[in-house]
């Protein structure tokens, strides 16, 4: 493993990753508070301080180990989840959808902002490779988080959205998966199912949508 390449990759991805996980988790907390649950607020988790959301194992150790073990071919990690007591929400079943959706929505918005930065850098002919690669990394990281977290299996955000949308009986059946959901999702990721069936199609759709949204800016800067 080339240490200089590793260091460069870490520096390029550090800021986009920190913003991606911090804003994602804070968005859950803000949405929960808006709909009546102050749990995250009382625990000091509604903050843009990244250290409040970093999980030493899931955010740092696991991605680094996987990077070395697979030569960068496979990465997986997670942040410290913002605590939400869904029973405190004014309308738990309905509001659960909005609280869960807030995280992925914040990542999609960040992907758009990084795309604007990239288009601006290229349009203004600022050819500093480090910043160009960081903007590209920002788009990639946030689209991965957006798509992955929408996977419809609890405890991922997509699973909670699904529980909120389903009728009570079906919702209860899906919610029972949650204690084992992380291990099921991890197994599906390792097997390549999540990447092939879910991530690639959804990310392709995301890239197309962002390209369409920023096309006026691209045309303006040409």
From TrEMBL:
Cofactor(s) listed in the protein's UniProt record: Zn(2+)
A cellular-component GO term for this protein: plasma membrane
Subcellular location: Cell membrane
Transmembrane region(s): 57-76, 97-124, 180-199, 205-221
Pfam families hit by this protein: Peptidase_M50
Isomerase keyword on record: no
Membrane topology, from the record: Multi-pass membrane protein
InterPro entries referenced in this protein's UniProt entry, alphabetically: Metallopeptidase_M50B, Peptidase_M50, Rip2-like
Domain Peptidase M50: 14-131, 135-191
Keywords: Cell membrane, Hydrolase, Membrane, Metal-binding, Metalloprotease, Protease, Transmembrane, Transmembrane helix, Zinc
Entry keyword Membrane: yes
GO terms (BP aspect): proteolysis
Any GO MF annotation of the entry: metal ion binding
PANTHER family: ZINC METALLOPROTEASE MJ0611-RELATED, ZINC METALLOPROTEASE YWHC-RELATED
Family membership: Belongs to the peptidase M50B family.
Protein name: Zn-dependent protease (Includes SpoIVFB)
Species the sequence originates in: Paracidovorax wautersii
